[in-house]
Structure formats: C-alpha cells, structure tokens
Design goal:
Shape: elongated
Strand content: 25-35%
Helix content: 25-40%
Oligomer: single chain
Order of helices and strands: EHEHEEHEEHEHH
CATH topology: Maf protein
Radius of gyration: 18 Å
Largest sheet: 7 strands, mixed
C-alpha cells in the first residue's frame, strides 16, 4: 500500500527529530508567516493556536504533479507561559534575553503549549483546497531549573537553546535541569506525537 507524506511547514530541529523517530514519511516546506503580526486577542492557548493558523495561511505548497490529488500539511507553534508573573516566552532575541527567560523559569513552574493545524488538501479545479482540517493544542506544566552559575555551561552544551521557546531544551544535556513534567513530553519538545498520529488516522493518512 502506498504511504502518504506529511508536509511539515517548520524548520524546527526538534519537530523534525520527533518525526524521524515516529517513522512518519514527511518533507519540510516553507511558510511566509511573520508570527509577530498576530494580535494577542485570545487566552494563551488561543493565542498559540492563532499563530499556528497564521502559518497555515502562509504555507508554500509544492506544485501539483499530474498523479497527485491529495496532500497532508501540518503547521505548529510552541510558546511558554509563566502563570504567576504572566510572561509569554518565545524564542530569545539574544543570550541576555535567553538568560532572562531561564531566570523566570527558576521562579515558578511554567506551562508549555504546542498548537497544531493539520489539513488534508485535495486538488479541485487545478488548485489545492481544504478537504478536512483538525486543530488542537497540547500542553504540559514543567519545572526547568538551570542554576545561574551554570547558565554559560548550559548554553555551551546546548547552543540550540538560543533558538528554543523559553530557551529551554529538555532532552539530552537538558535532562540535567528538568525537575518535572506534568503533561505531554513531546508537546514540550514541539510536536505532540500521540495526538498527531491520532489526527492523521482520523483524516485517512496512510502510514
């Protein structure tokens, strides 16, 4: 049986790594979304979802081949929220900003939310149109504590943390600083694999 391919509109290392582990056939594509233009008109979960949906509206789909009549597309976004001090933490601007985020996470547990938009698209009248869509958020509350005197060592060992939401990498060397996870571990890494697999099955994706 022919397998379907998932088009992932993300260049995130962690998301690609998770899909590599999953065995799902995928290919990365571009999007032209600037998430900074998305207004904060919702609660935290709704805000993260609005960014993922904005990315879906700005995907750059591959050209339609003669034998293709269906494709599956995924966009996702992850953000960190500090419930007590009410900060939203995205990707740090620089090292100083990354250290600011680590300091905030030392003070309180944080909520990590990943929003996903999944579309099944079909060819109608020579163009891709939405056939089915599923959107959801998956979250976890984590305690991630990097001692201030270990911050430089942490960033030396985990340079990807400077491109990670909240400056936190919970796997690999980051395991040293992960005190607890209450919720979806893979959502904290950027892509809730269990929920994704269930959603793909629901819209007829062939693994």
């Amino acid at each position: 049986m022919k397998r379907d391919r998932l088009y992932l509109a993300s260049q995130s290392f962690s998301r690609r790594q998770l899909l590599d582990y999953s065995g799902i056939d995928y290919q990365t594509i571009e999007h032209t979304s600037d998430e900074c233009v998305v207004p904060r008109e919702h609660d935290f979960h709704g805000y993260v979802m609005s960014i993922a949906q904005h990315k879906m509206d700005a995907i750059v789909l591959p050209s339609i081949e003669q034998d293709d009549n269906v494709c599956f597309v995924l966009t996702a976004d992850s953000l960190v929220f500090t419930p007590q001090s009410r900060h939203i933490l995205g990707k740090p601007e620089d090292l100083a900003d990354a250290k600011r985020m680590l300091a905030l996470m030392r003070e309180e547990p944080v909520e990590v939310v990943t929003a996903c938009c999944l579309h099944k698209k079909v060819v109608r009248a020579g163009r891709w149109e939405i056939d089915q869509e599923i959107s959801w958020t998956t979250s976890a509350v984590i305690e991630f504590y990097v001692d201030q005197d270990l911050e430089d060592w942490y960033f030396e060992k985990m340079p990807r943390a400077l491109q990670a939401c909240g400056a936190g990498i919970i796997e690999g060397f980051g395991d040293n600083f992960l005190k607890s996870v209450n919720g979806s571990y893979s959502a904290v890494k950027g892509l809730p694999l269990f929920e994704l697999r269930q959603a793909l099955k629901k819209i007829g994706f062939r693994f």
